[in-house]
Amino acid sequence: MYISRLSLPRRTFLRGVGAAIALPFLDAMVPALTPLTTLKAAGTTPGLRFGAIYIPNGAIVDEFFPKEAGSGFEFTPILKPLEPFKNSLVVVKNLSRSHPGSQVGDHAVSVGGYLTGVWPKRTEAEDVFANTTIDQVVAKQIGQETPLPSLEVATEDFTGYVGACSPGFSCAYLNTISWSSPTTPLPMEINPRVVFERLFGQAGTVASRATRSRQQRSLLDSISEEAAGLQKVLGAKDRGRVSEYLDNIREIERRIQKTEAHNTTQVTSVGAPVGVPDSFEEHVGLMYDLVAAAFQADMTRVFSFMLSRELSQRTYANLGVTEQHHSVSHHGNDPDKIAKNVRINTYHMQLFAKFIAKLQATEDGDGTLLDHSVIFHGGGMGNPNGHLTDPLPVIGLGGGLGKGHRQVVLPERTPVGDLWLSVAHKFGDKMTEFGDGSKPIELFTA
């Protein structure tokens, strides 16, 4: 038997002027007749990814958590958008942030304690102290072989928030969800253009980016010749994967360029960062699409996304909510305000569901990106009316969790650190404690 087959390295790039586009996982990257055990040992098969999305201002937990524990449950109004992905969904009930029952620090400790599992140091100065977040723990395990060990993104500009943003607590605790060490909060990038260029090239000053935007020249144009040459030697399945992948990148770039062109023609938007859409939904969609592209190209295997900021003043006119999110979250048990909160919570879940659909639709080795991911979506506050510490609205999605369509009901006020401890173990870090957590929960199944 004669075997003739192209074998590409996993880390293969198409290079052009100012661009280096990593390829998705292709059949051509798997040498012919290589046993699966050998591929896994060599790291040739797609790796497991991790992501964490943070929602602000709590959730209406009665409309979030299903009534049934264990396998199979009826979808609540807030979770309904995720029903198509039920076989990859795990709901985790009765988690609590650090110091359960305490309202001190409210919004600051909600976000500052969510991925850290600790009660952040009470300070309004620069001597902040929390914990290395779980995304960075995971990045140390699986992110060292990718160009970006992790990716931190958001949708709101935090640069003007300094000093104390919550009584007794520094703005640093509200400005990020990711910490590389207990004393080092990581900045969250809000500009899709900057994220795009970190992933695919042509970094530069705001002025230089604006000049390129006016020229409307695609990054992909510079690698088109090399891409065409590669397509000639790939199999039919791989050609389809590459074409779809490059089309997705071009569509992301087109949307960013459209936003930039709009911003530069609006007098009221002169000071706006280039590439940041006016529409929240478009902004969130671009960020999610960029994360999906980064996963597909194996540019990073870890991301954190602050969907919106605690104390967010955002309004949702498209939902009929003209009051600021933070204001309406203090609903005072008013049925109308509770209903508005449910609409906001459900809307955030709808945006998340679009991201999950993209992961599910994207081939990745012997499965899909969703099959090879563990993604958590949640926040550091329960019922927002009283800034309650629990139960935190937390769900997990992805094949890495094992069996789906189940709700794991924990003892009341289980430290969120227990969840992140189990995640750390899943990704190879055998630490015995994470924040206040010392008992990993039985979350992952075979």
Describe this entry's structure for a reader.
The chain is an alpha/beta fold and 446 residues long. The protein has 11 helices and 16 strands. The chain has helices spanning 36-42, 106-114, 134-142, 192-200, 206-215, 224-233, 236-265, 280-296, 325-329, 335-361, 416-426; strands at 13-16, 19-22, 49-54, 70-71, 89-96, 151-154, 164-166, 169-170, 179-181, 184-185, 302-306, 363-364, 367-368, 373-378, 394-397, 406-415. The strands form 5 sheets. The chain has an 8-stranded mixed β-sheet with strand order 4-16-5-15-14-3-11-6, sandwiched between helices. The radius of gyration is 22 Å and the shape is globular.
Q: Main beta sheet: strand number and arrangement?
A: 8 strands, mixed
Q: How many helices?
A: 11
- Can you count the beta strands? 16
Low-confidence stretches: 1-5, 265-273
Q: Structural class of the helices, strands and pairings?
A: alpha/beta
Beta-strand portion reads: 15-25%
Distance between the termini: 38 Å
Rg computed from alpha carbons, rounded to a whole number of angstroms: 22 Å
Helical percent range?
Answer: 25-40%
- What coarse outline follows from CA principal-axis ratios? globular
Helix and strand string, N-terminal first?
A: EEHEEEHHEEEEEHHHHHEHHEEEEEH
Strand arrangement within the widest β-sheet reads 4-16-5-15-14-3-11-6
**Average pLDDT level:** 85
